[in-house]
């Protein structure tokens, strides 16, 4: 048996020296290529198994009995029913088993959440830009499910009430904010350290003991709610065990099929044996470790929803198992990489369910199942190990849209590791993204975490933050449109345009521009509007949180979140050790650059009155194109290393952050800000009027921490300088800085050294996050057809670099040819 | 808005400062492009570098026809956007300052050594982690050797690596001490035959060859900067058998066994239009095959070839 590692184990000592040179494991085996090909050739679909089982449960005897039980138990029974009744599927070649849906690649349908939006596309599923394939019969079923459950989602239950109806409508007309928490909370880095090394049995026994003694671990007597909580824990664990057993049975059945080769039979039987053991008992091997993670991951996906369900620091979690098997000779690096690549391919089985309307806010079909590698241990020393590299190599084998990969960087990150990560970036999949440990850890400490726990952070989904296994972070609760608040500030709380015969205020009543005497007055009005919008948003989220406790508590999530079993409380009831609600902002650079433009044009150069500027904005620069061009071309913008304008971006970020940080959620947790926008900057942009930065009405906003598209004119190092110069200590939910490079510039060893070098400098200077797209000839062609597709794309022109959009068509063509040729 | 374009007669005009350059010396570099060049190579991609004084360019594709330039010009030199009477124009740059779209552009801004250092300094941290530094290019930076020497000295005081890109056309008797704070010279060679060189580049190559010989000797005796030759490959002009073998023999004789080949692309065309200069002659595009043939030919003649940015600086045995 394993020595118990305890749920608070933070790092392991380095048991093995990192081999020199490190083996390169990025060539896929036949098995991995076969699974990958099958996944890529499978058409996207929707799985209806979960909603149908949920319906079936409601009318079953257990379901009817559950109606009168405590909400925690009622929900646990429903989830347990789904887990234990879903049909197991074993796919060819796979070593880690456990189907995410009833189909090989499909979205789960969550009637409790936002899946209903897909009804908008019901009659044209195959004709969408990203087609979804359902049989005619399935479509009828889907329509039936949609109809029956349309009002029973969390959003419906919360907002279809007197006085709240206009907030319900906001989901269809998102402007100041877009509340994603309505769809589900998801977004978790569970305590896989505990799951893998202690098994669910530890939690099960703890719940059992509390129920038997009628007390919490600290001796306090259990309340009725607490009793229900511990029962719910045991119920869902039973469901997970049953799901694993069903999979084991299916694998054994498959092993008996006559056409199965001896070799495959052995694999199936060992998968079956693994599923009979984990995740209930501690994993004994590397394979069992990953199998354990996978099964709990599937359970978490089926319990809440699919967004941002992440694995945490797998290089740390699996390391003891890897070392033990490497030492006793039962595993070699090649095999471990194959198992890891197969595990990562499992994450491609799922996708989100968005209508095309919603897709403009969250484009890309990502659910972002994050794996974090590298970084420091709890002691602050470097924790990069062999597995950190192996996980990157495994991704290099598959290069798929999932999982999300995250690399932590600190001053002692080995050069070979950073270069290896950049090598994966060079493949052009936009992964991994990079995180600066000092900046992230400081922000998490400011959000209330201990230094040790902050150092054990892992990325949730895309960029969001958790101390792994200890945090309940509704990390993607809502996206916030900051520039719109500036529009409202310049118009007494009304939008610049739109049908508004009653002159109704959309925001707060703030000072009319004619009475603004100084730039400080503008800032004050902006602050009023931001505070008002944040307050309104918090009010709606608070309603949702109350519904969640009753309708959609998450016992499985509570098992993998430290604190819940100690307090006897579900995560939705505030059981997590750290509890956060995170709000993301879009259009930060637009807001900052607009403040700068107002300050300079109106108050410093006194070229026009604020009222005249606002009139021009209301008319979307009509008749004032030269002013608009001047604002765009001649005014300084964030992202060029210019302090006077970067401080305005800081000001905008601080106004937003302070508004967010002034609120607590109903679980007692802190609201924290993040600076990223999915693709909400496009959807929000359509609803936002003209801005003093020179941006016309309806144009997309800047994304995350990035400069306004195309206005970073001094190259990537200047962007990094500007970003690193901002104070990120309040951004406990991190930020996203997107950068794009021409493959030709950053290819080979020269590019690898250059990128890893500038990222190291960025993090040395306090940078928090950066993610990179390396683009090739096809992308450039797309950029030429649609210049707005890749603004800010830097290409190498002869001896110099230029923005692709700045080049004349003939030169663009030349560059495309050159890129395709690979010379130059 | 651009400002500070007051003439500093003893300082050169800078037409561009580019950061994150990976192909003009080791590591991540910033390149300072100085205006003024003694050569007029037919294929030149940076025609804005020719004149030592600032130029006004007109980028027609950015113009919104607002006529701000026409109205702003104190000399009445602009009849319509893009139609500027160069005799009336006294280069006051009022049109450039007032142009909202960026169609009217100024190439060339005067810097003092101090102001240029301030411009470069924020990039220094990126050099340290990549082995990069600052490269002086042009135009021809040796035209401004005092200014370059001063800046190189300031950069060395802050432990910044320095490189200088030259066409090699300067007085062979020139006091070489202006290179004492330059770590690496990137020496551009073009045509080996003197008559051909005069024909395509406008000047004889005799002094260029003398200077290359002299700098190689200084480098190999450890008393000068490292030296690395670069040859732009212009199809059927510089990639001919005679030209490549001629240079190979020359390089072998002065002890250099490596060369960077810069493939030709016709990128300078639009810039000539912006500057109202006659179009450059058309040269065929370099193909992969002819690039490979050139590499093989040079290799057979004892010269290892490198692509820009992929030079093996560390193994060249030079001070870099």
Jot down its keywords.
heterodimer, A: 824 residues, alpha/beta, Anaerobic Ribonucleotide-triphosphate Reductase Large Chain, 3 domains, 5-stranded mixed beta sheet, 4-stranded mixed beta sheet, 17 strands, 47% helix, globular, disordered N terminus, B: 320 residues, TIM Barrel, Alpha-Beta Plaits, 2 domains, 9-stranded mixed beta sheet, two-stranded antiparallel ribbon, 10 helices
Structural description of this entry:
The complex is a heterodimer of chains A (824) and B (320). Chain A is α/β, with parallel strands linked by helices and 824 residues long. Chain A is built from 33 helices and 17 strands. In chain A, helix 2 crosses helix 4, helix 10 runs antiparallel to helix 11 (262-277) and helix 15 crosses helix 17. Chain B has two domains: 13-46 and 112-316, Alpha-Beta Barrel (TIM Barrel); 55-107, Alpha-Beta Plaits (2-Layer Sandwich), CATH 3.30.70. Chain B has helices spanning 68-72, 94-98, 113-120, 124-128, 145-157, 194-201, 206-220, 241-253, 269-274, 288-300; strands at 13-21, 29-34, 55-58, 78-80, 83-84, 104-107, 109-110, 133-137, 161-166, 184-188, 226-233, 258-263, 304-306. In chain B, helix 3 (113-120) packs across helix 5 (145-157). Chains A and B meet through helix 27, helix 30, helix 31, strand 16 and helix 33 of A and strand 1 and helix 4 of B.
CATH class designation of the largest domain in chain A: Alpha Beta
Order of helices and strands of chain B: EEEHEEHEEHHEHEEHHEHEHHE
Strand order of the largest sheet of chain B: 7-1-2-8-9-10-11-12-13
CATH superfamily of the largest domain in chain B: Aldolase class I
- How many H/I helical runs of chain B? 10
Given helix and strand content, the structural type of chain A is alpha/beta
Principal-axes geometry of chain B comes out as: globular
Strand order of the largest sheet of chain A: 6-7-8-15-14
- Protein chains sharing the most extensive interface: A-B, 47 and 47 residues
Structural class category of chain B: alpha/beta
State the assembly state of the protein chains. heterodimer
The overall average pLDDT of chain A, rounded, is 91
Share of helix of chain B, binned: 25-40%
Largest sheet of chain B: 9 strands, mixed
How many strands of chain B? 13
CATH architecture designation of the largest domain in chain B: Alpha-Beta Barrel
| Distance between the ends of chain B | 38 Å
**Class of the largest domain in chain B, according to the CATH hierarchy?**
Alpha Beta
Low-confidence stretches of chain B: 1-8
- The CATH topology of the largest domain in chain B, please? TIM Barrel
Number of helices of chain A: 33
């Amino acid at each position: 048996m394993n020595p118990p590692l305890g749920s608070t184990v933070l790092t392991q000592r380095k048991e093995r020296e990192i081999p020199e040179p490190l083996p390169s494991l990025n060539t896929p085996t036949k098995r991995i290529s076969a699974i990958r090909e099958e996944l890529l050739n499978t058409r996207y679909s929707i799985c209806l198994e979960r909603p149908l089982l949920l319906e079936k449960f409601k009318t079953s005897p257990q379901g009817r009995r559950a109606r009168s039980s405590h909400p925690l138990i009622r929900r646990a029974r429903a989830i347990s029913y789904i887990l234990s009744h879903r049909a197991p599927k074993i796919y060819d070649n796979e070593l880690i088993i456990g189907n995410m849906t009833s189909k090989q690649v499909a979205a789960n349908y969550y009637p409790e959440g936002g899946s209903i939006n897909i009804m908008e596309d019901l009659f044209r599923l195959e004709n969408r830009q990203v087609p979804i394939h359902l049989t005619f019969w399935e479509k009828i079923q889907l329509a039936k499910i949609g109809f029956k459950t349309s009002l029973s989602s969390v959003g419906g239950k919360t907002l279809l009430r007197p006085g709240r109806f206009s907030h319900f409508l906001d989901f269809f007309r998102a402007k100041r904010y877009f509340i994603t928490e309505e769809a589900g909370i998801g977004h978790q880095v569970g305590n896989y350290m505990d799951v893998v090394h202690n098994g669910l049995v530890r939690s099960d026994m703890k719940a059992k003991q509390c129920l038997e003694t009628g007390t919490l671990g600290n001796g306090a007597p259990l309340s009725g709610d607490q009793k229900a909580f511990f029962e719910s824990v045991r119920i869902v664990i039973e469901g997970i065990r049953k799901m694993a057993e069903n999979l084991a049975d299916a694998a054994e059945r498959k092993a008996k099929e006559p056409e199965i080769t001896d070799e495959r039979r052995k694999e199936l039987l060992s998968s079956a044996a693994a599923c009979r053991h984990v995740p209930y008992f501690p994993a004994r091997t590397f394979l069992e470790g990953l199998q354990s993670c996978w099964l709990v991951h599937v359970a978490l996906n089926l319990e809440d929803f699919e967004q941002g369900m992440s694995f945490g620091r797998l290089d740390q979690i699996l390391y003891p198992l890897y070392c033990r098997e490497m030492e006793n000779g039962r595993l070699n690096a090649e095999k471990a990489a194959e198992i890891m690549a197969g595990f990562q391919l499992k994450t491609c089985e799922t996708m989100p369910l968005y209508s095309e309307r919603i897709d403009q806010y969250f484009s890309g079909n990502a659910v972002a199942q994050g794996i974090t590698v590298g970084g420091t241990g709890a002691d602050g020393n470097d924790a990069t190990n062999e597995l950190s590299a192996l996980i990157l190599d495994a991704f290099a084998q598959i290069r798929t849209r999932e999982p999300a990969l995250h690399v932590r960087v600190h001053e002692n990150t080995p050069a070979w590791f950073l270069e290896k990560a950049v090598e994966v970036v060079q493949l052009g999949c936009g992964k991994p993204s990079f995180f600066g440990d000092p900046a992230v850890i400081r922000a998490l400490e400011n959000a209330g975490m201990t230094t040790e726990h902050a150092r054990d952070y892992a990325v949730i989904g895309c960029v969001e933050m958790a101390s792994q296994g200890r945090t309940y972070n509704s990390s993607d609760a809502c996206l916030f449109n900051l520039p719109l608040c500036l529009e409202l500030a310049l118009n007494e709380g009304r939008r610049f345009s739109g049908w508004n015969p009653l002159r109704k205020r959309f925001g707060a009543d703030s000072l009319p521009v004619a009475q603004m005497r100084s730039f400080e007055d503008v800032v004050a009005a902006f602050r009023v509007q931001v505070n008002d919008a944040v307050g309104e948003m918090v009010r709606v989220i608070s309603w949702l949180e109350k519904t969640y406790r009753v309708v959609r508590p998450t016992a499985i999530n509570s098992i993998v979140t430290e604190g819940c079993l100690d307090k006897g409380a579900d995560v939705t009831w505030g059981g997590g050790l750290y509890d956060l609600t995170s709000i993301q902002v879009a259009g930060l650079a637009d807001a900052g650059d607009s403040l700068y433009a107002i300050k300079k044009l109106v108050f410093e150069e006194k070229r026009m009155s604020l009222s005249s500027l606002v009139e021009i904005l209301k008319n979307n620069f009509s008749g004032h194109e030269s002013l608009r061009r001047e604002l765009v071309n001649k005014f300084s913008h964030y992202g060029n290393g210019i302090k006077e304008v970067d401080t305005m971006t800081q000001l905008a970020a601080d106004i937003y952050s302070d508004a967010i940080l002034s609120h607590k959620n109903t679980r007692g947790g802190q609201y924290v800000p993040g600076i990223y926008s999915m693709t909400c900057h496009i959807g929000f942009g359509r609803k936002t009027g003209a801005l003093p930065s020179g941006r016309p009405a309806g144009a997309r906003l800047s994304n995350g921490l990035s400069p306004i598209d195309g206005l970073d004119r001094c190259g990537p190092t200047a962007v990094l300088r500007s970003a690193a110069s901002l104070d990120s200590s309040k951004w406990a939910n991190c930020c996203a800085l997107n950068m794009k490079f021409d493959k030709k510039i950053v290819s080979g060893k020269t590019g690898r050294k250059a990128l890893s070098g500038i990222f190291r400098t960025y993090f040395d200077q306090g940078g928090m996050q950066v993610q990179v797209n390396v683009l090739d000839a096809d992308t450039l062609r797309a950029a030429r057809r649609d210049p707005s597709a890749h603004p800010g794309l830097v290409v190498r022109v002869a001896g110099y670099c230029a923005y692709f959009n700045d080049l004349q068509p003939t030169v663009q063509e030349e560059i495309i040819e050159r890129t395709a040729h690979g010379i130059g | 808005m651009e400002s500070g374009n007051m003439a500093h007669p003893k300082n050169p005009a800078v037409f561009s400062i580019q950061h994150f350059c990976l192909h003009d010396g080791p590591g991540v570099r910033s390149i300072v492009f100085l205006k003024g060049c003694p050569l007029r190579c037919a294929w030149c991609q940076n025609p804005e570098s020719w004149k030592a004084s600032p130029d006004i360019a007109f980028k027609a594709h950015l113009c919104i026809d607002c006529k701000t330039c026409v109205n702003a010009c104190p000399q009445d030199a602009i009849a319509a956007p893009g139609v500027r009477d160069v005799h009336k124009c006294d280069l006051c740059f009022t049109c450039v300052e007032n142009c909202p779209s960026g169609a009217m552009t100024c190439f060339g801004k005067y810097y003092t050594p101090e102001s240029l250092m301030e411009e470069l300094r924020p990039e220094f941290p990126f050099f340290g982690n990549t082995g990069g530094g600052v490269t002086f290019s042009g135009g021809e930076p040796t035209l401004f050797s005092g200014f370059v020497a001063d800046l190189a000295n300031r950069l060395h005081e802050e432990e910044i690596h320095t490189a200088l890109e030259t066409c090699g056309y300067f007085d062979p008797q020139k006091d070489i001490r202006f290179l004492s704070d330059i770590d690496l010279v990137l020496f551009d060679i073009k045509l080996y035959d003197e008559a051909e060189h005069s024909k395509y580049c406008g000047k004889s190559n005799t002094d260029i060859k003398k200077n290359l010989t002299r700098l190689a000797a200084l480098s190999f005796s450890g008393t000068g900067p490292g030296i690395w030759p670069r040859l732009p490959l212009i199809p059927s002009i510089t990639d001919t058998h005679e030209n490549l073998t001629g240079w190979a023999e020359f390089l072998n004789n002065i002890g250099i066994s490596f060369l960077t080949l810069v493939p030709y692309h016709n990128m300078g065309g639009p810039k000539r239009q912006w500057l109202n200069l006659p179009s450059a002659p058309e040269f065929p595009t370099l193909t992969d095959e002819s690039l490979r043939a050139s590499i093989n030919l040079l290799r057979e003649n004892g010269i290892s070839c490198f692509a820009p940015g992929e030079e093996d600086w560390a193994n060249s045995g030079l001070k870099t």
